[in-house]
Amino acid sequence: MIISIEGIDGAGKNTLVRALTSRIDAATLTFPRYDTSIHAQLAARALHGQMGDLVDSAHGMATLFALDRYGAREVLDRYADSDEVLLLDRYVASNAAYTAARLKDDAAFDWVYDLEFGQLGLPVPHLQVLLETSVDEASIRAQKREAYDATRTRDAYEKDGELQDRTFAAYQQLAAKQWASPWLTSSDADDVSEHIIQVISS
C-alpha cells in the first residue's frame, strides 16, 4: 500500500509522516530525493538560481521532479502490490499542483498524469492525503524552519507567496476531483492520522 502525504511547503507533511511511523510499521520515502537523485539535485540548483533560466520552464522543472521519482520506481513498485505500507512525503500530485499553479492552467493535471503514471509507469497511490494547512501558517512554519536549520533555506517556490496560494487551490481541485485515486483532506493532523490508521487496518 502506497500512501502519499501532500500539501504546500510548511503544511506539516514530514511531521505527519514521523507521527505515523511512531504508531505503525511503515517505510518512508521523501520526494524530492535531494540526497541521492541527480535530477532532484539539478532541480534544487535551479530553484536557488544556479541553472540559468531552467527554473523559468514549468515543464522542464516538472520533468526533473518526475525523473527523480522514476529513479525510485523499483522501490515504489515493491510496495504497490504489497501488504506492507510505504508513506510518501510528496508524490506525483505535488508535481500536478505546482505545475498547474505555475502555468495558471489546470490542463497540467492531465499532462503530469500522462507523464508520470503513463509514460514513466509509476504506481498510482492507494490513498492521497491533503493537509489543508493555511498558506499563512505554512509560510510561518517554513520561515521558522529556515531560521533554525541552515540546510532548509527556502527556494524560489517557497518564497513566492502567490505561487503558494495558487498551489493550495490546485491541491484542493485535485482532491475534489479525486484525481488518480481516493483523497482524504483535513487541516487536523490528528484526525488524518486516525483515518490513515483505519485504512491500513482494514
From TrEMBL:
Thymidylate kinase-like domain mapped to chain residues: 5-180
Pfam families, per database record: Thymidylate_kin (PF02223)
GO MF term (any one): ATP binding
GO biological process, one term: dUDP biosynthetic process
Source domain of life: Bacteria
UniProt cross-references to InterPro entries, sorted A to Z: P-loop_NTPase (IPR027417), Thymidylate_kin-like_dom (IPR039430)
The keyword Nucleotide-binding is annotated on this UniProt entry: yes
Alphabetized SUPFAM superfamilies for the sequence: P-loop containing nucleoside triphosphate hydrolases (SSF52540)
Annotated Gene Ontology cellular component terms: cytosol
Assigned keywords, A-Z: ATP-binding, Kinase, Nucleotide-binding, Transferase
Protein name, as recorded: Thymidylate kinase
Family in the record: Belongs to the thymidylate kinase family.
